């Protein structure tokens, strides 16, 4: 039941936030949208509805004893840091020559990130980078199911926002432009520590 609730929460928060950046009350410069925008959405839907299913198996072993909802006070900040660490290293690995050519280049097809295409990626990347870095922290902190749902919504909305290109020099926009910086997520803690953080 938990994984179903997480799926619905993720799916709805992703597409509702994507709508806010896609239609007139969001980003207005439609010329930057690709001509194959429908294909972008189709790939994202496949990733969400088919390949996310790989995570049914680990959730069969989700901790039965979890901390109470009140532990969200420390769990969510801790999950933000864990996600940054896991996303940095798994994403950085995707930039090695072979993996970039055969897997990660799909996500970098568009130099300007597209909100609705935040999860536009090869299935291997979707499972091993996107989902792995967002799901693993829930297990590590033994998040209560309600906290896990809050976290899922937060992670989904953050993914869309980071690909919305609302600012010229936003962190992930710079990554899509230069490829060799800002590999992390959120506060870019690992990038700052390892010298791969770029502001402009």
Structure, described:
The chain is mainly alpha-helical. The chain has one domain. It is 58% helix and 0% strand. Helix 1 packs parallel to helix 7. The protein is globular. 34% of the residues are buried.
Helices and strands in order:
Layout: H1 2-22, H2 37-49, H3 56-59, H4 72-94, H5 97-102, H6 123-140, H7 145-162, H8 171-178, H9 189-194
Helix pairs in contact: 1-7, 4-6
Query: For the report, how would you describe the main beta sheet?
Result: none
Q: State the order of secondary-structure elements, H for helix, E for strand.
A: HHHHHHHHH
Radius of gyration: 16 Å
**Low-confidence regions:** 24-28
Strand percentage lies at under 5%
Q: Brief overview, please?
A:
This protein has one domain. The chain is built from 9 helices and no strands. It has helices spanning 2-22, 37-49, 56-59, 72-94, 97-102, 123-140, 145-162, 171-178, 189-194.
Distinctive features:
single chain, 200 residues, mainly alpha
């Amino acid at each position: 039941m938990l994984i179903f609730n997480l799926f619905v929460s993720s799916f709805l928060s992703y597409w509702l936030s994507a709508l806010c950046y896609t239609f007139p009350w969001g980003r207005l410069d439609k010329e930057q949208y690709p001509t194959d925008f429908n294909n972008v959405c189709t790939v994202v839907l496949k990733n969400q509805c088919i390949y996310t299913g790989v995570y049914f198996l680990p959730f069969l072993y989700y901790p039965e004893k979890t901390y109470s909802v009140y532990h969200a006070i420390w769990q969510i900040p801790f999950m933000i840091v864990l996600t940054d660490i896991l996303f940095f290293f798994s994403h950085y690995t995707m930039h090695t020559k072979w993996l970039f050519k055969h897997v990660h280049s799909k996500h970098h097809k568009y130099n300007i990130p597209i909100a609705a295409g935040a999860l536009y990626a090869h299935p291997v990347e979707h499972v091993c980078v996107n989902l792995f870095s967002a799901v693993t922290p829930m297990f590590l902190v033994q998040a209560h199911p309600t906290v896990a749902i809050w976290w899922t919504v937060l992670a989904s909305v953050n993914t869309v926002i980071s690909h919305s290109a609302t600012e010229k020099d936003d962190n992930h926009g710079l990554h899509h432009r230069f490829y060799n910086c800002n590999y992390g997520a959120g506060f870019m803690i690992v990038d700052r520590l390892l010298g791969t953080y770029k502001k402009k």
